[in-house]
Design a protein that fits this description.
It is a single chain. This protein has 16 helices and 17 strands. It is an alpha/beta fold and 376 residues long. The protein folds into two domains: 4-254, pyruvate-formate lyase- activating enzyme (Alpha-Beta Horseshoe), CATH 3.80.30.20; 306-375, Arc Repressor Mutant, subunit A. Strand 12 (267-270) and strand 13 form a beta hairpin. Helix 1 runs parallel beside helix 10. The model has no long low-confidence stretch (mean pLDDT 96). Probably acts as a heme chaperone, transferring heme to an unknown acceptor. Binds one molecule of heme per monomer, possibly covalently. Binds 1 [4Fe-4S] cluster. The cluster is coordinated with 3 cysteines and an exchangeable S-adenosyl-L-methionine. This is Heme chaperone HemW.
Length: 376
């Protein structure tokens, strides 16, 4: 019987890199794209003998929608040639508004893409300019209209809060405009300042000022409240969906299900082994030329390591985890092994045990890092 697996495909190209972004992605590298796609397909061939059945395929980046239609056509033909793909496979793509075109959408629809996520971040043009985004609010609305006209049904949007220049009034406007698009899924992320980005430099030189922690929490609670009123169920710390529209692929990450990653710097997780690909083009190409999977780093985890990782990642999910399932999976007694930490956080009101499920409380979602530290 074939092993069910998720597939992540990394597209490390953008038209422009955003001011907050530290992802492995490159701007103004158009001359590299064709060669990269050639090698991505060669990498797929190295997995052809593996007995995998894909039930989720996720294109991330970078900006996957930056690829020309013919390049995505080549990639998808290769995936279907080298892998078995389940009939109900979730096929997802991240898109930026300015790169959404009818020609590209025709290719996505032809190859069975059934989950589309648009990186909106904000509808306020001043906020978007500061973030280094190439689109404006009107472009988002125009591209969503195009998606709907072409028959796209499962549409999600990514938004960001706690941005410099974004006060509560702008947040409320962003959320209202986002809801007016009637998306099936909304991811709402808090701005994280990453080392080496323009935002990090500007914070250090005081060219921008970050929002206070209390104001950030107020924004997050407002988002939770308004999305619940609008019929979206929060199923993870940053993710909200209409019933049935939760991301199958992303839940693999949070539940430690198996997946393989293809492309520059892509990560994979198979049972107790996790590994990541080369992060430089020349190293990536050279390994594949030698007939090897382009793996740069591999780690064999102990069952104890994986147990703690399982607890921490599953607690990102609003439903948490079933204690009996955890006990069976790792042959432990969770409530005995972590008694001190559990008792402490039950008293603090950060965790809850109900009907055998261990979860963060609403308060715990705000301050849960301390629980992680206590079990480590």
């Amino acid at each position: 019987m074939k092993e069910t697996m998720g597939l992540y495909v990394h597209i490390p190209f953008c038209q422009k890199k955003c001011h907050y972004c530290d992802f492995l992605t490159f701007a103004r590298q158009e001359g590299m794209i064709k060669k990269y796609v050639d090698y991505l397909i060669k990498e797929m061939a190295l997995y052809a003998k593996e007995d995998y059945l894909l039930d989720s395929i996720y294109f991330g980046g970078g900006t996957p929608s930056y690829l020309a239609a013919e390049e995505m056509d080549r990639i998808m033909q290769a995936i279907y040639a080298y892998f078995d793909v389940s009939e109900d496979c979730e096929i997802s793509i991240e898109m930026n508004p300015e790169s959404v075109t009818a020609e590209r959408l025709e290719v996505y629809l032809k190859h069975g893409f059934n989950r589309y996520t648009m990186g909106v971040q904000s509808f306020d043009d001043a906020v978007l300019t500061l973030m280094g985004r190439l689109h404006d609010g009107q472009t988002v609305r125009d591209r969503v209209d195009l998606l709907r006209k072409m028959g796209v049904k499962n549409l999600g949007i990514d938004l960001m809060f706690a941005n410099p220049k974004q006060n509560m009034a702008i947040l409320k406007s962003d959320l209202k405009q986002g809801l007016s698009l009637n998306p099936d899924h909304i991811s709402y992320y808090s701005l994280m300042i990453k080392e080496g980005t323009p935002f990090a430099r500007w914070v250090q030189t005081r060219q921008i000022q970050l929002i206070e922690d209390e104001a950030e929490r107020d924004m997050y609670h407002y988002i939770q409240s308004e999305l619940a009123k609008a019929g979206y169920q929060q199923y993870e710390i940053s993710n909200f969906a209409r019933p049935g529209a939760e991301s199958r692929h992303n839940q693999k990450y949070w539940t430690l299900a198996n997946y393989i990653g293809l492309g520059l710097g892509a990560h994979s997780n198979i049972d107790l082994v996790r590994y990541s690909n080369c992060r430089q083009f020349d190293h990536y190409f050279a390994k594949i030329d030698q007939g090897q999977k382009p793996i740069a780093y591999q780690e064999q985890l102990s069952l104890e390591d994986r147990e703690k990782e399982y607890i921490m990642l599953n607690l990102r999910l609003i439903k948490g985890f079933a204690i009996t399932e955890l006990n069976q999976k790792f042959n432990i007694n969770f409530e005995e092994k972590y008694r001190t930490a559990i008792d402490k956080h039950l008293k603090l009101g950060t965790v809850s045990i109900k009907d055998g499920q261990f979860t963060f409380t609403k308060f715990g979602l705000d301050v849960g890092n301390q629980f992680y530290l206590d079990i480590l």
